[in-house]
Design a protein that fits this description.
The chain is of the alpha/beta class and 237 residues long. The protein has a single domain (8-231), classed as Alpha-Beta Barrel (TIM Barrel), CATH 3.20.20.140. The chain is built from nine helices and seven strands. It has helices at residues 15-22, 27-35, 59-68, 94-103, 116-125, 149-154, 182-192, 205-211, 217-231; strands spanning 8-11, 40-44, 74-77, 106-109, 130-133, 161-164, 197-198. A seven-stranded parallel sheet has the order 1-2-3-4-5-6-7. Strand 4, helix 5 and strand 5 (130-133) form a beta-alpha-beta unit. Helix 3 (59-68) packs parallel to helix 4. Mean pLDDT is 90; it is low at 15-22.
Amino acid sequence: MAAGGDEAVHRGPGRHLARLLLRRNNAYTSYCVKKWPGKFAGCGLLTGYRLYPPSDKENPSRLERLVKEDGLIGLRLSPIYDRGVVWLNDPVSYSLWKKAEDLRCVFHIFLAPHQVRQVADMAGRFPGVNVVIDHMAMIDIGAPDSEGFGPLLDLARLPNVYIRTSLHNPSKTREMPYRDVWLFLRRLYDRYGARRMVWANFFEYAIIKDLIPFFSGEDKDWIMGRTARGIYRLGSP
């Protein structure tokens, strides 16, 4: 995920690559951060699906090593792969979030719509952790607001929550430029503002930059770089 023309954020791989190749190995992400200091920020994999159990008491110390020794800035948590299990806001996870708060970490969270309220619980309980919602929480744009999008809008009351502008995931048409999602993007923009939005994927760059009619030039500066630089401490926002 890019932060701007000169910096980038490297997140841990998705479920299938993690399962086949890396699992808990964050060496490549750490390598990028250390090889190009100031150019990359890295979020690693630690707990959740096929990783360390959320109840593992060593998770906070593992996170501290990832930050202090490996140079990462936080984690990607993916409760979406455990849809029938509640662990994100289970009390067993409190110690990990407290350590993340102490370390000023960023948590990218990939989740399903019905799990949004779990984020609200944890982001409110640990305001020192910056939370980035991946892929607009995979909302179903054909469902009532109460089934996910409403709670996602409500998260805006928490100043430590940010939104990635993924358009392709919620789209029903799957056709660029994903115009069926623009109304939902506008509602997120109205609630969060550009300073708490981060563009998501390289193939959406031109859509955000040239096609979305309700973003001002200053909005685009924030969404396409300045917000991310602030979250990931890649330079002056």
